[in-house]
TrEMBL record:
It comes from Halalkalibacter hemicellulosilyticusJCM 9152. The keyword DNA-binding does not apply. SUPFAM superfamilies: Nucleotide-diphospho-sugar transferases (SSF53448). The lineage of its organism: Bacteria, Bacillati, Bacillota, Bacilli, Bacillales. Belongs to the glycosyltransferase 2 family. This is Glycosyltransferase.
Length: 290
């Protein structure tokens, strides 16, 4: 109850100071208060001021992403990022995210610049981790793959987070190293590891198998999986294999052939003959029932 009352009081004072009073009135009030009173007022007002600043950023994000006012919103964010205070970091973070999503070298350079500002004095481990992932993405886009990988490796020493593992795995070219790294992540999250079979005639992806044991859960809910297919004789088998090897075996796998002209039907039927859970369905030709 006290917390609610305090929040309401802060909101009222916040509105009075930032919305009602003019600049001249604020200056006059400041000249009347002692330094001690100013400090007390500052402690009370900081949370309210922070919320006001965050709302400004949220409005800019809305104009940027929802309304499409890109140029004006970016310029406003840059102006705030050039100032001092909390708003500077919030604005810099949004600019960093915007620029990294431009998927260009210029965007990567800009993102790195604003990430440095966003991290000024930052102590929150979650924010730092997210920033490191963005920095690694930028370095990779600039062709500095080893620097990106080392950045994530160093961060993994402090935080065994899935984002760091997956980010690092995306930078590694060796399939075996990728699997080793993913298994390290799985162990950290108490998930069964994966490994490669020795069937070298298969593609690298098809050679991947899980080590978790299938459970007899036929008394549990049946899960229906729908796999659409069109001229996918070369790939539909991979999708079906991934389903039949799930540890949840109470499945029905509905493979829908959308009038394929290759051997998709034959491949699906081959699996259907081997596993009763796989069902072959087909869509009618356009105009067939007209």
């Amino acid at each position: 109850m006290l917390r609610v009352m305090k929040r309401s009081l802060i909101a009222s004072v916040d509105w009075f100071l930032y919305q009602f009073l003019s600049t001249t009135q604020k200056e006059k009030m400041a000249s009347i208060l002692t330094e001690k009173q100013k400090e007390k007022l500052k402690k009370i007002m900081n949370p309210g001021k922070k919320r006001t600043q965050i709302r400004k950023i949220e409005r800019m994000k809305y104009r940027l992403y929802e309304l499409g006012f890109r140029d004006r919103s970016i310029e406003d964010l840059k102006a705030f990022a050039a100032e001092s205070g909390v708003l500077r970091q919030y604005a810099a973070w949004e600019l960093a995210v915007w620029y990294v999503n431009q998927y260009s070298k210029r965007g990567a350079e800009q993102s790195l610049y604003y990430l440095e500002i966003a991290l000024e004095g930052e102590k929150d481990s979650s924010t730092i981790r997210r920033a490191k992932v963005l920095q690694a993405e930028c370095y990779a886009r600039l062709g500095q793959v080893e620097q990106a990988a080392n950045l994530l490796r160093n961060e993994l020493k402090h935080s065994k987070h899935v984002d760091l593992y997956l980010g690092l795995a995306s930078l590694i070219h060796s399939a075996e190293e990728k699997v080793n790294l993913l298994n390290e992540m799985y162990r950290a999250y108490h998930v069964s590891p994966i490994l490669f079979t020795t069937d070298y005639d298969q593609t690298m992806y098809d050679r991947l198998i899980g080590t978790a044991k299938s459970k007899d859960n036929h008394q549990s809910a049946k899960v229906s999986v729908i796999i659409p297919a069109y001229n996918s004789a070369e790939t539909v088998g991979t999708a079906i294999e991934a389903m039949v090897k799930q540890t949840w075996n109470n499945l029905e796998i509905l493979v829908v052939d959308d009038c394929s002209t290759d051997h998709t039907k034959e491949v699906i039927l081959q699996y259907a003959n081997q596993d009763h859970r796989v069902k072959y369905l087909s869509t009618p030709l356009m105009g067939e029932h007209m």
